[in-house]
Amino acid sequence: MAAIQSNPNVSYHMRSNSFPTASHPLVSQFEEHLNRLKSSASASSSSSLSHKLSGLQDLQDSTDKLLQLSTSQQVLAQDCSQKCVDELLDGSLRLLDICITAKDCLLQSKESVAEVQSAIRRRGAEAAFIVGAANYLASRKNVKKAIQKALRNIKGIRNDLIVKENDMLSMLKETEAATVSTLESLLSFISDPKGQSKQSRWSVISKLMHPKRVACDSQEIGINEFEKVDAFLKSAIKQKYASIDSFQGHLENLEICIQNLETEVECLSRKLIKTRVSLLNIFNN
After folding, report:
1. What pTM did the predictor assign?
2. What's the rounded Cα separation, in Å, for the pair 118 and 5?
3. Are the beta carbons of 26 and 252 closer than 8 angstroms?
């Protein structure tokens, strides 16, 4: 399954030459990172998603560097109404909330994977594996509920992503829009990526016991690491099938995927906090 695409309603606008630092190297750097993020491939795999998250971190770095410029600080301090200030600060807090949700979901997923691995090590009896599989799927259900709630909140955030006339505000809104879009892709990737028909999905599930076939089929339709494990465990429980030879590789790949995403999201979280602190310093001085 492919992760959802960036929402077409979230627009990215270029700045006018009236911005005081239009000729500053940091502005060119910002636009380069923004354009690169816009043109990056859709997050249909863990590697493409990690690349997208890394690109977002670069954009956040550029944004914060711009916020350190005296001209940028003057523009924001002088031209922002109280409503505008509240919007920016609320927006930065909401991004952090979404990021925290993603971190929590990844942590819960990692713990669930560890439980399944423990059950496999104790698989002297088929029941141990089946219980571990059932607990994993129950945890996944909770993760998906949390993500669906976060995705509904994202829909509300989009309504506030309106670019202002002020160029510095425009840049901040563009960064917020890019962050929302990327986090939306991340959450959908973890939860249940869209874009695959039920027939194709169940075709893969029926072949998960045959690693040579599923390796090809899963690549063709874009099934990701989370769903490979989900599919195998659902099938194992339904068929009371406890042979996990072909499953070990999927579980190890998911573990690596989660670890890589955790690293990227943790870095992004720190950058979001840094940007929020910069905004608070500007508006409190």
Report:
1. 0.81
2. 36
3. no
